[in-house]
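Regression test case RT-17, inverse folding.

Input:
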């Protein structure tokens, strides 16, 4: 069964103008009615690093969770952020970007890979104590723009490390939009059978021209957890100067419809959310 993960946090984090808290909450409340499995809705990181998301706790306080099955995920970059997330019973998942690029790990979280691995171990212990789950994003999972070594075997090595720590959800992240169908197919076809106890998902960034081929390669090789954002907004502000947006939710729906696969989404609620997205993103 497909799990669709909607990522308003990823879509909003790079916006230069601050989106009012009330508008953020209205947008996320609309998304909660659509039927997504999970919303990556906010982050508990330094407001200096991501000023757009400095109001995540305030947004959370304005969400109506009384009539939704959708779960909430928040991103963190350090132990303090993880502890902050654990104070909120409403949040189900704690997400952490673990980069297999030393340069990008330092740019994104100010940590080396070794320090980041120690943090993952500490966070895994923390979430188990607090009834939550850790979601690890393998950043630069499909390539490296910094001249460092990259290979599918390197990505697989770090997936194995996370599985050994007991992490049950790992998402391969196409941070700069460089994934090719061949590498996507290779990684999912080899990793999913190898780690049956781990939910291995796809967090693609993509130009419009390559969205469907990436989805096709992931789906055909067993991936059933896909992150997306309405209208393909977003991208990582710490990766490169030119942001490559998320896979558009509309593209995922188009892909599913072409294969006669039900999305389980409420079309009317989705339309309403898209209208509010127009206010958020301009």
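Golden output:
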């Amino acid at each position: 069964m497909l799990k669709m993960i909607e990522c308003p946090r990823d879509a909003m984090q790079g916006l230069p103008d601050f989106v009012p808290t009330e508008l953020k909450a209205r947008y996320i409340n609309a998304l909660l009615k659509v039927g997504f499995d999970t919303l990556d809705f906010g982050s508990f990181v330094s407001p200096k690093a991501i000023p757009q998301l400095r109001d995540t706790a305030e947004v959370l306080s304005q969400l109506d969770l009384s009539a939704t099955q959708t779960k909430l995920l928040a991103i963190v970059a350090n132990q303090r952020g993880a502890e902050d997330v654990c104070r909120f019973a409403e949040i189900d998942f704690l997400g952490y970007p673990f980069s297999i690029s030393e340069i990008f790990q330092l740019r994104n979280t100010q940590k080396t890979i070794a320090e980041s691995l120690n943090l993952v171990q500490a966070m895994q212990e923390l979430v188990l104590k607090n009834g939550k789950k850790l979601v690890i994003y393998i950043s630069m999972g499909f390539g490296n723009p910094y001249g460092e070594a990259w290979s599918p075997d390197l990505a697989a090595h770090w997936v194995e490390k996370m599985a050994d720590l007991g992490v049950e959800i790992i998402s391969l992240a196409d941070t700069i939009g460089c994934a090719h169908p061949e590498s996507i197919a290779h990684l999912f076809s080899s990793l999913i059978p190898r780690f049956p106890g781990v939910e291995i998902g796809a967090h693609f960034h993509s130009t419009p021209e390559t969205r469907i081929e990436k989805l096709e390669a992931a789906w055909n090789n067993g991936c059933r957890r896909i992150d997306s954002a309405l209208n393909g907004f977003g991208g990582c502000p710490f990766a490169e100067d030119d942001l490559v947006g998320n896979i558009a939710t509309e593209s995922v729906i188009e892909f599913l419809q072409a294969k006669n696969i039900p999305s389980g989404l409420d079309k009317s609620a989705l339309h309403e959310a898209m209208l509010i997205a127009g206010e958020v993103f301009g």
